[in-house]
Design goal:
Rossmann fold; four-stranded parallel sheet; two-stranded parallel ribbon; single chain; globular; 9 helices; alpha/beta
């Protein structure tokens, strides 16, 4: 069982059940888009973010991105940690048909994969001793932004990192800096 001091936000009750089986954490559901209309839940999430921050772990589909953007608008950037599940085609066992995007959500992702995603937080926070961070200038220099082929290069890098392929340049930059340092980033770029 992974012990996490940050509260973890997921979309639904089945995501919460899955995460509860591998993590000892305060897990809050958004009830899909229900969080948009619930002032009480939004206030609770803001309060939970104050001491340690919030980990947002939504599905890697369009709805998950909309929910992430909502949290970007109500929480300070320094209190928000976006973690991403890989885009895996399939359907959850309890469902009759796949989602609109045809991808597994948090509840359908393997427990070992979720453990790996949450591992940096199991000891109570991010390793601040990591080396140099990747910058927007690095992205530009490496052809990941500002060129005709930059979106395709980002998609290739996302595939290699098991991150959602529809991430914006800023979201990818944030995820890379959360998970890796500059040297590891450069290693991954060699295969793009």
């Amino acid at each position: 069982m992974i012990h996490i001091k940050e509260a973890v936000i997921v979309e639904g009750k089945y995501d919460k059940i899955k995460l509860s089986s591998i993590a000892d954490a305060n897990i809050i559901t958004t009830d899909g888009f229900g969080v948009f209309a619930s002032a009480e839940k939004s206030l609770l999430i803001r309060r939970l973010a104050e001491p340690y921050g919030i980990i947002v772990l939504t599905d890697s589909d369009g709805a998950g991105l909309v929910i992430r953007n909502y949290f970007n608008s109500i929480l300070p950037k320094e209190k928000l940690i976006h973690l991403y599940i890989p885009q895996v085609a399939g359907k959850e066992k309890r469902k009759k048909s796949p989602s609109k995007a045809g991808m597994l959500g948090v509840e359908g992702i393997e427990s070992d994969t979720l453990r790996e995603i949450l591992k940096p937080f199991s000891s109570g926070g991010i390793d601040v001793s990591k080396g140099r961070e990747v910058t927007k200038a690095d992205f530009y220099e490496d052809g990941l932004s500002g060129t005709e082929s930059s979106s395709e290069r980002r998609r290739m890098l996302c595939r290699q990192l098991s991150l959602p392929e529809n991430m914006s340049a800023n979201a990818l930059l944030s995820a890379i800096n959360l998970l890796y340092d500059y040297d590891k980033y450069k290693e991954f770029l060699q295969n793009v």
